[in-house]
Amino acid sequence: MKLGRVIRETPDGAEIRLVAIDIDADLATDLRAAEGRRLRRAGATTEAAKAISGVYFPSSLTAALGAGQEFLRRVEQAIDEPDEKAVLPLGGLKWAPAIDPPAMLDFAAFEQHLVNAHARGKKELGDVFYERPVYYKMDPNTVIGHDDVVPWASESSYMDYELELGLVVGTEGSDLEPATAQEHLLGVTVLNDFTARDVQAREMPSGFGPAKGKDFATALGPWVTTLDELDINDLTMVARVNGEEWSRGSTSTLTWSIGELLAYASRSGKLVPGEVIGTGTVGLGCGLELYKSLQPGDVVELEIEGIGLLRNTIGKQTGSFWQPSPKQRTASPTLPPRPTRSRT
Amino acid sequence: MKLGRVIRETPDGAEIRLVAIDIDADLATDLRAAEGRRLRRAGATTEAAKAISGVYFPSSLTAALGAGQEFLRRVEQAIDEPDEKAVLPLGGLKWAPAIDPPAMLDFAAFEQHLVNAHARGKKELGDVFYERPVYYKMDPNTVIGHDDVVPWASESSYMDYELELGLVVGTEGSDLEPATAQEHLLGVTVLNDFTARDVQAREMPSGFGPAKGKDFATALGPWVTTLDELDINDLTMVARVNGEEWSRGSTSTLTWSIGELLAYASRSGKLVPGEVIGTGTVGLGCGLELYKSLQPGDVVELEIEGIGLLRNTIGKQTGSFWQPSPKQRTASPTLPPRPTRSRT
């Protein structure tokens, strides 16, 4: 099953609707509309049909996943009885981000990408990447969808893409084991972790991880494919810029398995419905590894086998923005004398 | 005004209710109950009063802030006409996290803390901390509230607290200027950025920032104080462990102003209602800077002038957890030949 979100016009303005996509038929079913019509056929009043379908199929896929197993049952019911008034041709749809994640992690689970990126900086990859699956957190406030323009990051003159698989959590889980963690996934999507390389290079010496080098745009889409449709451990991943292939890889080259990533992500914490977990960039899956960069107007297409194609256009450089003025060093260490025992 | 969230029992189980706190009267007003009763007095049916009060005062403070300026107007209305059936004595209340943030950043805006923490590692603080306000992202999935037990982080034998001011965003804003950014704040809360120092030390060499060293618990509470009640640029901050004062500082020692932090946070992105932005730890505001650590059963109290006191008890060490087995190094760089121009 493929589940996405599209933007439809209503008398109250634009509204995001959950859709189920049928690629072969070139159609999407507006789930709220379909469920409302199904309920009316089963004797519900217009008022009740609207209220119930709105609760099961709100604009937020994360909120919809909150219904647990009932959510997918309702989706199946809504598309099992097709109603032509709830069906839309795929062409011409305006896409919202496939999901509105309440939290987003990004792992660095492809050794080849890390080795290459470090080699560009004349560095060897540190032991920590082999000792544990390393991650940082992405910015849920700047998620964009299929066909959206990527805002050019302030302060940057080196924009890049990153070709990643996005894991979408379906059900809550804590302290999971690698062998069974995958049961908590709803499905997968295509993730483009857009990066301002020069900003990233300036901020990474802090050791605090990517910040404004990443927190301007993360693309998720075009939709989520549920796990029953594919073998997520062997998916071909391709990136094209202006129609030319730049990157090609496979999820089969993951250094840390998807089960291991989910287990680590959930350790001493929890996965929540709608959360998105990136695998990190596949080897040679970004311009940095290819001595290439993106320019305004470039069209970036990421395609993952069995999911679909996520396309974005790079926006224009922005004008003015607030740039911090450097501060003076004023403080010296004020540590107390080191005690003979660690706890006093 | 002080706004918080408490857990109340209902026939359908425990439910989080938004409350307005009157410290002097030692009372909290259940806003949903108060608004429902006010509406009924104004002629609303029981059904409509329940529906309307539930929309304005849901369990989520973030969702409530979505109503914009109407939210605070409704709060004022609900507490202006006190109804004894909606009022609860402060003592005995069970607190939920002050807010349920959709995103959380943590800055490193107190130079003294950074200089001290680096001195513990025999390092000088890097230039990047003086060039821009550095931040990392906190984990919204592991937020805890006042009086909650702090889960002991897996793999750790060195637990620590961090004394911070938490800024709570009220209204959306992008590319803000330092002089006016503060207008987007609802108020402030006390933030304890609990840290597993040994786990943090193992993962920081990645450069990807704190992960499992932080992503097990962040305490927010006891409530949010709106900005009209205080001067956030001069608040005394104190930490006590088992009743003994360990840390004392002030927001007046911030290296980057709160306006600068908000402006940078919003650059090429946006602040969203309910988002929490930490200032980072005040100088000498954690055990690391004092050669001290926390033990199971320790009671940590953080108090900030004009806000209140956030108290948490350190939990017991956990038993089994999944620990990754190291991977072998297998990849060598596969970079293409360096081109003569950067774009080919």
TrEMBL record, chains A, B:
Residues 106-314 form the Fumarylacetoacetase-like C-terminal domain. GO terms for molecular function: hydrolase activity. Residues 334-344 have a biased composition (Pro residues). This is Fumarylacetoacetate hydrolase. Residues 318-344 are annotated as: Disordered. PANTHER family: BLL6422 PROTEIN, FUMARYLACETOACETATE HYDROLASE. InterPro entries: Fumarylacetoacetase-like_C, Fumarylacetoacetase_C_sf. Keywords: Hydrolase. Residues 318-328 have a biased composition (Polar residues). It comes from the Bacteria. Coiled coil: none annotated. The lineage of its organism: Bacteria, Bacillati, Actinomycetota, Actinomycetes, Mycobacteriales. Pfam families: FAA_hydrolase.
